[in-house]
Design brief:
The protein is an alpha+beta fold. The protein has two domains: 144 residues, 2-Layer Sandwich (60s Ribosomal Protein L30, Chain: A); 33 residues. It is built from seven helices and nine strands, in the order H-H-E-H-E-E-E-H-H-H-E-E-E-E-E-H. The strands form three sheets. A five-stranded mixed beta sheet has the order 2-1-3-4-5. A two-stranded antiparallel sheet has the order 6-7. A two-stranded antiparallel sheet has the order 8-9. Helix 3 links the parallel strand 1 and strand 2. The longest helix has 20 residues. The radius of gyration is 21 Å and the shape is globular.
């Protein structure tokens, strides 16, 4: 089975490096968001992502929400859930990718990622994986996505803080992340090495 890819999906795959179920989930979410909010040129659209999986790469590529611009906020809840706040519209939506696409596959997935499948098992697994990707890409929105408007305060815009020089390693760091130990102003890394 060959997976049909539009230009957005092709670019997301190129950005991410490969096609996988996680990227397919992020693509579906980003595609839905693009139908309701414009792509972010600067910080107009803010994505609050609840995982650090492959799906986030599709969000970054398709919606231009990135940590560098300050409009990608990471909250490590381990959920395929995403909240998007539109500064232009003053409203937000939360999208949860529903459905356990890998139900009953924990052992075979673990063996796959450990490189312990024999060639026949690997072929079967990859065929099943492609079937899952196709299902994620082609199922109706209401079968894959749980979407609801949410009332959240506008996320703070990205701020630029002055830099300080660590009195231990000599490297510059963002002022608000500084720590003090033994009468010295330290970067977080040196502080953790000193105190921990």
């Amino acid at each position: 089975m060959a997976i049909e890819m539009d230009d957005d999906l092709k670019k997301a795959v190129q950005f991410h490096g490969h096609m996988c179920p996680g990227l397919a989930m992020g693509y579906r979410v980003a595609k839905y968001v693009k139908e309701h909010y414009p792509r972010s040129e600067d910080e107009e659209l803010v994505a609050i992502v609840e995982n650090s999986s492959c799906s986030v790469d599709a969000i970054q590529d398709m919606l231009s929400c990135t940590s560098g611009k300050g409009n990608l906020i990471f909250r490590d809840y381990g959920k395929q859930a995403f909240t998007f706040y539109s500064r232009d519209k003053g409203k937000a939506m939360r999208i949860y990718v529903k459905g356990d696409f890998f139900e009953g596959m924990d052992d075979v997935r673990r063996k796959y990622f450990q490189g312990k499948l024999n060639p026949e098992e690997k072929t079967e697994f990859e065929a099943l994986r492609e079937k899952i990707i196709d299902m994620i890409l082609t199922a109706p929105d209401d079968e894959v996505l749980s979407v609801k408007e949410v009332d959240i305060p506008a996320p703070a815009k990205a701020r630029i803080y002055p830099s300080l020089k660590c009195q231990q390693c000599g490297e510059a760091f963002m002022e608000i992340l500084g720590r003090t130990a033994g009468g010295k102003v330290l970067c977080k890394e040196c502080f953790e090495k000193t105190v921990c």
